[in-house]
Specification:
Helices cover 79% and strands 2% of the residues. The chain is mainly α. The chain has a single domain, classed as Up-down Bundle (A middle domain of Talin 1), CATH 1.20.1420.
Length: 331
């Protein structure tokens, strides 16, 4: 239910986005990333109401690690992925800053509601920034541009521009070739969203049950569950790699990490402050930030991710899972 519901949601949302003239890379970083993160988002919301902080932290950070290692690695094994400076200097540096910010927030053992609000505010501003059309926000030094954009409240003018374009489409001044199917796609989004919500409730309830039954730390179980909740990202990555759409592969992986860390952890901590366990501080968080740096190095290396980089990333993920299974319960 989680995987197929998310799949239907992504396809419908992407079709609507294309009618608004949004590029494939931006779709990968925003709509597809948010859509493929729906399992984590809805599962985290249910877990927050049950005060299962360990399950949330394990699932979210575990999903981030799976996105950057397992999914990009498998995609690179299928076909070489071309990269460019924009991937590194805007989105790559941004996810590195997000990873550092996450560790800073984790140091005191709790991600508070205020910190959650900060994470959500950054996510909203960054998402709006991606729709900015001004030439100075494209190309090199995108992360620095975003910082200025964020501090100068540039997102308000971008929102105004997006609403103006939507209004133009509604008035017919911007052609919409398949407007007749928009209502159908909205219906699919609603129905698939309901499917994801129901599946997420079943997932969380049974995850808690098995954690107690086998006396497995919730954080470890959350990381194992992340293998299942990242299946939508895996499906998108493999499909995009086969079609030679490297931008979608990297955009979806980085975008999903950004969504998981900023939006999902932000929403979860707003509902109930998240307690950060020793497993997260000593194993998962350091592994995440190391993997982010490794991924950025691979992106810049000859501006292409090939099989050898894919093998390294997959081996990293296998080592991470083995480490969690061996040492996770004793940390």
């Amino acid at each position: 239910m989680l995987v197929k519901g998310s799949d239907f949601f992504i396809n419908a949302a992407s079709r609507i986005a294309k009618r608004l003239g949004i590029s494939e890379f931006v779709i990968g970083l925003t709509l597809v990333a948010v859509g493929t993160s729906l399992p984590e988002l809805v599962s985290a919301i249910f877990a927050s109401f049950q005060h299962e902080s360990g399950l949330i932290m394990g699932n979210i950070v575990g999903a981030d690690i799976a996105n950057l290692s397992l999914i990009i690695g498998i995609s690179a094994m299928i076909a070489a992925i071309r990269t460019d400076t924009e991937m590194l200097e805007r989105d790559g540096y941004f996810i590195l800053a997000v990873a550092v910010l996450l560790i800073v927030f984790m140091f005191n053992g709790t991600i508070s509601r205020i910190e959650g609000g900060v994470l959500i505010a950054i996510f909203i501003a960054y998402t709006i920034f991606l729709f900015e059309t001004k030439p100075e926000y494209k190309g090199r030094f995108g992360f620095i541009k975003f910082t200025n954009y964020f501090l100068k409240l540039g997102y308000f003018s971008t929102i105004k521009g997006i609403f103006k374009r939507v209004q133009q489409i509604e008035e017919g001044s911007v052609p919409d070739k398949v407007s007749g199917s928009t209502v159908k796609d909205l219906g699919i989004i609603i129905a698939s969203g309901a499917l994801v919500i129901f599946g997420a409730k079943l997932l969380v309830d049974n995850a808690i049950y098995f954690a107690k039954l086998f006396e497995v730390p919730a954080a470890v179980l959350g990381i194992l569950i992340a293998i299942g909740t990242t299946l939508p990202e895996m499906s998108v990555g493999i499909s995009a790699a086969r079609k030679g759409l490297g931008n979608i592969v990297i955009g979806n992986a980085i975008g999903s990490c950004i969504t998981n860390t900023l939006l999902i952890l932000g929403v979860s901590s707003l509902i109930y402050p998240l307690k950060v366990g020793a497993i997260s501080l000593k194993i998962t968080a350091p592994a995440f930030i190391f993997l982010v740096i490794l991924t950025l190095v691979f992106i810049k290396s000859d501006w292409e991710l090939r099989k050898r980089e894919g093998i390294v990333l997959i081996l990293f993920y296998l080592c991470f899972i083995i480490t969690m299974l061996i040492f996770g319960a004793s940390v």
